[in-house]
Amino acid sequence: MDIKQKFGLKIKELRKSKGLSQEKLANLAEIDRTYLPTIEKGERNVSIEVVERLAKALDVKIKDLFDG
């Protein structure tokens, strides 16, 4: 499993633990709703700006997206 896949799984895990749909998280993170599923599948090499938006939307620190 590569880093993109690990990152995507962490996003999915955090999103589900917070009871958010993909669409709701995408809205909170101000990213396109069709972009989030490709992140969660590990198909995207996301920018640091998107990482920051996702962390804020999930109410976690950036480092938390890479733990585990």
UniProtKB/TrEMBL annotation:
PROSITE patterns: HTH_CROC1. Pfam families: HTH_3. GO terms for molecular function: DNA binding; DNA-binding transcription factor activity. It comes from the Bacteria. InterPro entries: Cro/C1-type_HTH, Lambda_DNA-bd_dom_sf, TransReg_Diox_bact_type. One of its GO terms (cellular component) is cytosol. Residues 11-65 form the HTH cro/C1-type domain. Keywords: DNA-binding, Transcription, Transcription regulation. This is HTH cro/C1-type domain-containing protein. The lineage of its organism: Bacteria, Pseudomonadati, Bacteroidota, Flavobacteriia, Flavobacteriales.
